[in-house]
Amino acid sequence: MTNNKQADLELTSEMLERNDIIDNAVYDLILTLAEKSRDELDWSMEIIGEVTDAVKEVLSRFKLRVRHPGIVTYEDGSQAYDD
After folding, report:
1. pTM of the complete model
2. Phi and psi at residue 62, in whole multiples of 5°?
């Protein structure tokens, strides 16, 4: 993790692409588990985000490394990339 106090960080195009892949995979998982089609269940980042967090938590308990790029903002306003 690299701290940055000067400018707001932005995700790189590679990080954004990785997150798109994750979001799509989780949405497909939700559709499969709920036995719904894309026409029956709207894309919802609220649901996708919660499912992603739950999956990351389970994988972490099994000591599996998870790569889900993001940016962390600390109380002092500094930021760091979180992979």
Report:
1. 0.83
2. -90, 15
Return d(Cα 42, Cα 44) in angstroms, integer.
6
Instruction: Tell me the C-alpha distance between 4 and 18, whole Å.
Output: 22
Contacts of 56 by beta carbon, 8 Å cutoff, 6+ apart? 66, 68
pLDDT for the residue numbered 4 = 46
Kindly report each contact of residues 2-11 with a partner whose C-beta sits within 8 Å and lies 24 or more positions away, as own/partner: 2/80, 2/81, 3/74, 3/78, 3/79, 3/80, 4/78, 4/79, 4/80, 5/76, 5/77, 5/78, 5/79, 8/79, 9/71, 9/79, 9/80, 9/81, 10/71, 11/69, 11/70, 11/71
Residue whose structure tokens are 């998982």: 29
| pLDDT computed for residue 9 by the predictor | 94
